[in-house]
Amino acid sequence: MDRTGTERRSVDRPGQDRPGQDRPTGDGVGVRPAVQGITQVLAGLEYPAAKWQVLAEADHYGADSASRAQLWTLRPGTYRDLRSVLAELGLVADTRIPASGRGSRSVRLPRR
């Protein structure tokens, strides 16, 4: 309540996350449970690992269909660690700075 005695309620807006809530990943699963699930599924995997190795580990673990479907969305390539897999899936932010010359270019703005 505010000082006038009126009860105030917060309004949830689409696309706005509230602290303590799990953001859905698109398949109805929150981000935290999805991260925990993928982490558990890939616990025995040695890195770096190619996409096929990630999928094989998930099958060997006996991952559920939602986790397997999520892992199938990985782009072909080699993943250096679990965080890079989770970043590719959009479950965590990839905070690593790209090495100079690979993926980073300076942009020159025109002078006035």
Keywords:
flat; 112 residues; 4 helices
Describe the structure.
This protein is mainly alpha-helical. The protein has a domain at 31-88. The protein has four helices and two strands. The protein has helices at 31-41, 51-61, 65-72, 82-88; strands at residues 49-50, 78-79. It has a two-stranded antiparallel sheet with strand order 1-2. Helix 2 packs antiparallel against helix 3. The model is unreliable at 10-28 and 99-106 (pLDDT under 50).
Strand ordering within the main sheet: 1-2
How many H/I helices?
4
What global shape is seen? flat
List segments where confidence is low: pLDDT < 50 over at least 5 consecutive residues: 10-28, 99-106
What series of H and E elements makes up the topology? HEHHEH
Taking all residues together, what is the mean pLDDT? 75
Structural class: mainly alpha
> What is the helix content?
25-40%
For the secondary structure, the number of strands is 2
Characterize the biggest β-sheet.
Answer: 2 strands, antiparallel
Q: What is the C-alpha radius of gyration, as a whole number of Å?
A: 20 Å
Strand content: under 5%
Termini, distance in Å? 54 Å
